[in-house]
């Protein structure tokens, strides 16, 4: 049974950051000259340009890279799906994985280690986690004209209602823009 106070309470919206903040995180990793700087940079690029969950990123294998997409095997709910890739990311992944065997995981690390990589490069003043990349990806795609059904398939949501929450984030952005109009 739903209590009246529950029915009226607003849904908690996912936390996201704008593209510029994500790019600052990625640039920090790009300039990391340490032992794992290139790997970390690529991990952040994959998180940003695919919208994958952290566990999906750490489970990627070389054989999952196709000409212009990634095959996510056994995602949440055990479902497989295809995620399109931009040509730059295809090239970077190809070079990075060139000498790997097909069955080898691309990034040999745990979800906790992935989380620590994101924290290492985060921008001051922003609470950024691996899933923040996913939420930011979804909002960015919608703001740039992707339809909700396509986004649902890319993110691997079983129902459209799960993906629709991102419309509320885009809608709040519209209100912010509308407030700039002087009447």
Supply the key terms.
183 residues, mainly alpha, hpI Integrase, Chain A, two-stranded antiparallel sheet, 9 helices, 2 strands
Structure description:
- This protein is mainly α and 183 residues long.
- It has a domain at 14-135: Intergrase catalytic core (hpI Integrase, Chain A), CATH 1.10.443.
- The chain is 54% helix and 4% strand.
- The protein contains nine helices and two strands.
- It has a two-stranded antiparallel sheet with strand order 1-2.
- Strand 1 and strand 2 (81-84) form a beta hairpin.
- Helix 2 packs antiparallel against helix 3, helix 3 (37-50) crosses helix 7 (130-143) and helix 8 (148-155) crosses helix 9.
- The longest helix has 19 residues, at 160-178.
- The protein is globular, with a radius of gyration of 18 Å.
- The termini are far apart.
Task: Describe the largest sheet.
Answer: 2 strands, antiparallel
Beta-strand residue fraction: under 5%
Q: Over all CA atoms, what is the radius of gyration?
A: 18 Å
Number of strands: 2
- What is the succession of H and E elements? HHHHEEHHHHH
Structural class: mainly alpha
CATH class of the domain at 14-135: Mainly Alpha
Strand line-up in the sheet with most strands: 1-2
CATH architecture of the domain at 14-135: Orthogonal Bundle
Low-confidence stretches: 4-9
């Amino acid at each position: 049974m739903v209590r009246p106070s529950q029915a009226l309470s607003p849904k908690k919206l996912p936390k996201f950051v704008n593209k510029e903040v994500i790019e600052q995180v990625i640039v920090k990793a790009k300039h990391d000259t340490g032992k794992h700087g290139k790997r970390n940079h690529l991990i952040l690029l994959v998180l940003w340009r695919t919208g994958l969950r952290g566990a999906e990123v750490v489970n990627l294998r070389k054989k999952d890279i196709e000409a212009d997409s990634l095959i996510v095997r056994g995602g949440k709910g055990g479902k497989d799906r295809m995620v399109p890739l931009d040509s730059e990311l295809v090239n970077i992944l190809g070079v990075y994985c060139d000498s790997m065997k097909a069955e080898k995981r691309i990034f040999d690390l745990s979800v906790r280690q992935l989380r620590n990589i994101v924290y290492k490069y985060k921008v001051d003043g922003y609470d950024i986690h691996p899933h923040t990349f996913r939420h930011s990806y979804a909002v960015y795609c919608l703001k740039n004209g992707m339809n909700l059904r396509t986004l649902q398939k890319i993110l691997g949501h079983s129902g459209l209602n799960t993906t629709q929450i991102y419309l509320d984030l885009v809608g709040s952005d519209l209100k912010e823009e509308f407030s700039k109009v002087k009447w």
